[in-house]
Write a structure and sequence with these properties.
The complex is a heterodimer. By secondary structure, chain A is mainly β. Chain A contains no helices and 11 strands. In chain A, the strands form 2 sheets. In chain A, strands 2, 4, 5, 6, 9, 10 and 11 form a 7-stranded mixed sheet that branches. In chain A, a hairpin with a 6-residue loop joins strand 4 and strand 5. Chain B is mainly β. Classes of the chains: A mainly beta, B mainly beta. Chains A and B meet through strand 5, strand 9 and strand 10 of A and strand 5, strand 6, strand 10 and strand 11 of B.
C-alpha cells in the first residue's frame, strides 16, 4: 500500500483566515514533504521532515507553518495568506533516508489540496 | 547546478502506439536517482519508475521502461502500447541529497501527453 491521504481536497480562504492542511501516511515512512504547485508548473519543495524533525525549509514565508506531530502526520498551518499563494499543495512521504542510499528513496504523493485565497 | 530538462511541452500519440518522453539531466554528483511521475488532471503525482545512477540495467515496470544513457545524461521514458488513460502530464525528476536524512526532488517542466483514439 503506497497511500498518502490529504485533507481537505479543496479549500477556499480569505486573507485573514487561519486554516490547516493535513497529510497522513501509514507506510512507516520517516520522511515527509510539502510541495507547492502552481498551474502548468512542476512542484516546488517547501519543507522536509526527517524523523519528525524539520530538515529543510526552502525559504518559505512564515505565513506557512509546518508541523509534524508524529511519524504518520504532517500539517501545514496557514495564516494571512496572499492570493498568489493559491495553488495545489502536495504532501509526499518516503521510507528511510538514514538507512540506505538517500537518492534511491522514492517519494509517494498524496492527491493534494487545491487552495484558493480570496 | 542540478537541472532536469524536458524539451517536449506536448505530445499527441495514437492509441496503441509506443511513445518516448525525453528527459536530460545535469549533475556533478556521482550518486543520484531518476524518477518519472504521472500527473492526471486530478492532481495526484503517481510514481511510475525509478533508475539509480549505479544501476547497470534499464528499469522496467509493466508498460513503462526507462532508457538510461548515462554518458549522454538522458533518462527517457518509454510507454509501450499507449492507452487513453495514459493522457496526463509527465514529470521527470532527479533526487539529490541535501543533508544526511533529507533529499530533494528536482523536477523538469513536464510533458503533456495526449492519447488520441
Amino acid at each position: 500500500d503506497t497511500e498518502v491521504t490529504q485533507t481537505p481536497k479543496h479549500l477556499v480562504m480569505g486573507m485573514t483566515n487561519k486554516k490547516s492542511l493535513k497529510c497522513e501516511q501509514h507506510m512507516g515512512h520517516r520522511a515527509m514533504y510539502w510541495y507547492k504547485q502552481k498551474a502548468k508548473k512542476p512542484p516546488e519543495l517547501m519543507f522536509v521532515y526527517s524523523y519528525e524533525k524539520l530538515s529543510i525549509n526552502e525559504s518559505v514565508p512564515s505565513r506557512f507553518s509546518p508541523e509534524c506531530p508524529n511519524s504518520s502526520l504532517l500539517n501545514l498551518h496557514l495564516h494571512a495568506l496572499q492570493p498568489e499563494d493559491s495553488a495545489l499543495y502536495l504532501c509526499a512521504s518516503s521510507q528511510d533516508l538514514l538507512g540506505g542510499r538517500p537518492t534511491t528513496d522514492t517519494q509517494y504523493f498524496g492527491p493534494g489540496t487545491r487552495l484558493t485565497v480570496l | 547546478a542540478q537541472k532536469i530538462t524536458q524539451t517536449q511541452p506536448g505530445m499527441f500519440v495514437q492509441e496503441k502506439e509506443a511513445v518516448t518522453l525525453d528527459c536530460t539531466y545535469d549533475t556533478s554528483d556521482p550518486s543520484y536517482g531518476l524518477f518519472w511521475y504521472k500527473q492526471p488532471s486530478s492532481g495526484e503525482m503517481i510514481f511510475l519508475i525509478y533508475q539509480g545512477s549505479y544501476d547497470q540495467q534499464n528499469a522496467t515496470e509493466g508498460r513503462y521502461s526507462l532508457n538510461f544513457q548515462k554518458a549522454r545524461k538522458s533518462a527517457n521514458l518509454v510507454i509501450s502500447a499507449s492507452q487513453l488513460g495514459d493522457s496526463a502530464m509527465y514529470f521527470c525528476a532527479m533526487s539529490l541529497l541535501i543533508i544526511q536524512g533529507a533529499q530533494k526532488l528536482v523536477f523538469g517542466q513536464g510533458t503533456r501527453l495526449t492519447i488520441n483514439p
